[in-house]
Amino acid sequence: MQPPFDKAYDDYIAAMIDKYNLDMEGYNNNVNFYRAYGDLELLDMLTEDLDAELKNVIKAMVANAPRIALIKQGIKDGVYYDLDFSDDIVYAAKQAIALKRKGMKVAEFVNQVSMFEGPTNVQREILTAFEKYNRSAKKINMFIRFISDA
Known about the structure:
By secondary structure, the protein is mostly helical. The protein has eight helices and no strands.
């Protein structure tokens, strides 16, 4: 059984349904996305007008959200090992969007930050993959599926 969502999420979803006239599929996508990634800022980006490359990252995350939500629930229930990459995926997606808006490449970003304040190795690899495959939602989708199968 899924735990109830917090009040902020309930209010957010109600506003999204009203603002964008979401149908049931759109609502379910949002619920799965929130269960998988737990990030309202990225959830809001589902409706933003992002460039195609950034949209591919979000599309791949949406496609994998039901699976990642089930994995998270399995971890919580003790069925799976506690190996959850959803926070790393969220970090990489947000960083990819920020870097794209700044016009900065991932390699340039990684070289500028130190080992102690920069991304973890996992986050760096995910971020690098997002940049490498940014023209293909299908390849990003396969990459997220691959790391979630680990």
